[in-house]
Amino acid sequence: MDFNGKKGIILGIANDKSIAYSIALLLKNSGAQLCLTYPNEAIEKRVRPIAEELKVDFVEKCDVSCEDDIHKLRDAVVARWQKIDFLVHSIAYAEKEDLSRRFIETSKRGFMIALDISAYSLLALCREFEKVFEDGSSILTLTYLGSERVVPNYNVMGVAKAALEAVVKYLAYDLGPKQIRINAISAGPIKTLAASGISGFSEMLKSFEDRALLKRKVTQEEVANAGLFLLSNMSSGITGEIVFVDCGYNLLGF
Ligand code: NAP
Q: Ligand 1: residues whose CB is within 6 Å?
């Protein structure tokens, strides 16, 4: 796919195992110009070398729970590029204790944090960048089957992903008249930093591998390939969709 002349932002690289890293790599190799973000100093230390590796010199701070960071990111992007063609939101967060104890124990604070960072942030970013998106832009986020099925220990993150998927659909309605598209990929489980915070993740991965229709795990690269399709003009007729990239696991009824 050809992204020559296309510019966009990728939020959510924590390291080279991140889904967002694989998407950034493919986009870069397809000719796109990228802006990478980091939420804090600890992640900045990991993102800077990745930016160097990808030959990206546009790296900005953006903790999506901070409105001021989102404003500043928009200002930096407008100052440098005026307009963008795509945005990748590959971010989720919940307090560790909320991903191991019974869901019923989730505190109001834990609930608000998970929903704010994992779902509301997509709405906040799209509102801030609405006028910065070129007509025909494409937005991508990442979700998981725990939004519609009960996955033990996924807990409040399942509620956040259900909200995120609804946010995608309502944003698709609002942004559609400008030919701005927004879609989500529902990825199968992949061992990343975020995933390692979910209690029992390794067992979940093993059972996924045994049961998925393709009898194997899905890879970051496969998710990134589908991401590139959804970000490109090849998918120009697709918006508001939740696209499963999970080796067929979601089809199982037993
Ligand atoms: P990851 O490498 O840990 O990426 C998640 C990123 O979100 C991290 O860089 C994390 O930074 C960042 N983040 C957390 N809070 C933030 C904030 N306030 N502002 C900005 N960034 C923040 O994990 P990943 O698996 O690639 O996750 C990417 C997306 O894919 C997530 O939405 C996840 O739910 C989704 N997904 C993952 C899987 C899977 O099995 N891995 C499956 C389906 C969907 P910190 O490290 O500082 O928290």
A: 12-14, 18-20, 39-40, 43, 63-65, 90-93, 117, 142-144, 187, 189-190, 192-195
pTM check: above 0.90: yes
Token duo for residue 200: 């029992």
Mean of pLDDT over the chain: 97
Residue 235 is part of a domain; what is its CATH number?
3.40.50.720
Quote the radius of gyration of the chain (alpha carbons, Å).
17
Identify the band that residue 176 occupies on the pLDDT scale cut at 50, 70 and 90.
Answer: very high
Tell how far the Cα of 195 is from the centroid of ligand 1, in angstroms: 8
Which pLDDT tens digit goes with each residue over 217-249? 999 999 999 999 999 999 999 999 999 999 999
Backbone angles phi, psi at 198, to 5 degrees: -90, 120
Q: Is 144 a domain residue?
A: yes
**Tokens coding 232:** 């490109």
Domain count, the chain: 1
